[in-house]
Amino acid sequence: MRKSQLQFFGGLAILFFFTLAGWGCGKTGATSSSTAITYAIIMNQAPYGPACDIYLNDTLISPSGGIPPGEFSEKYGSIIPGTYNITFDKAGTDSVLAAIPSTPLINGGFYTLFLYNSTPGGGPISAAKIQDDFSALSQTSANYRFFNLSPDASPVDVYMNGTVVQSDRTTADNTANLVLNKFQPISPDIYTVEIKSTTTDSVLATLTGQNLTAGNAYTIFLSGVDKNSNNLTINVLQASY
Fold it and tell me: With CB atoms counted within 10 Å of each terminal CB, which end of the chain scores lower, N or C?
């Protein structure tokens, strides 16, 4: 059996955040300093999977009922740095969906942790940890990166105000090609973001009126399923904590 719950997530229906700062439970691999902090965003982007519970070294950090597919944290939450076994279980059970074993979360680091389906129509659920690097952000440009987290839309091209800025992006390709996790500069503006199929040039999803401002960092990601009717969504997550 897993250990008792440590800290609830809180927030709106599709946006939640968590905090483990000040955790002094002394679990294996966790530090005991109350001043050292690392930061993480969590996403459940496995649309064919169930709601998930999240454990750090066997300590539950997600809310009762788990995190449904499609939900993601609004901002970075704080965690005591350490080396963790990060496990995503089917909510309310000990059934492991995916795990990131013995992974370090360093002091002052920023991370994105997410679940995803890698193949159309379902298939295995995988988990990934991405280290987010804000050291080279432009202060005069907006900064963005794109993740394709839809198992049904692959490959895709990304258009910003009618200009293609990313091509041939496959599902979760940023987990293997870490260059794709870097933030790219783009002129500050109000954008229409379109995701098109690379093979057919058909529009899969559109987001209008997205304001990208100078000095800020944005993760733009495609999520959801595409089965006859387009249920794909473009999400924009501005980095904050």
Answer: N
